[in-house]
């Protein structure tokens, strides 16, 4: 049976814990109807994972006894997704599924053909948290403030990372063989990259990459290329 799992910002270092997070309490009491003796999993988003048993519920807290503790290491490669801003629902879906696929960081991009501006950061942070809980990951992915495309290019072009520019018009000669510990993925907006943006990426020595003949929606492309990069399938 799959164990219920929660992200907690509280100190998880003791043998006996008292969790006061109202979101966790609401889930345990009203949604799951948990009771003393039930087991749950907690993680701190920085690699610490533990299994605990519910001892008792108090008015504003739940007391737990830690049964097992594990400190997990970050997996490689570390994947950063530079994703052009999309319409609200599409961007939220892309973020959710990219987290499930294993992305480490998401940086929203403002491009020449961006038609949607502004992000509800609080809602996106909640989506990231819930997707991390659901997918069993131990590290909480980062969400950055939006940056302009040219600024993003400057951030990565002199790095040791593999910089991949997703472009439908390019054909892949062969599977990328890389041992890169860090990969930056650039996925464009609904209307695609502008000619100027393509030229800038080319002059910055980016690796152009196509996801095949089918024209994928931007949110679909973001999830597919993230999964391929995380699993060394590019």
Note the overall shape: elongated
Strand runs, count: 12
State the helicity in percent bands. 25-40%
The number of distinct helices, counting runs of at least 4 residues, comes to: 6
CATH level-1 class of the largest domain: Alpha Beta
Quote the CATH topology of the largest domain: Alpha/beta knot
Give the strand content. Answer: 25-35%
Give the topology string: H per helix, E per strand.
Answer: EEHEEEEHEHEEHEEHEH
Total discrete domains: 2
In terms of structural class, how would the helical and strand content be classed?
A: alpha/beta
Q: Give the rounded overall mean pLDDT.
A: 91
Largest sheet: number of strands, sense, barrel closure: 7 strands, parallel
Describe the oligomeric state of these chains in a short phrase: single chain
What is the gyration radius calculated from CA atoms? 20 Å
Low-confidence spans: none
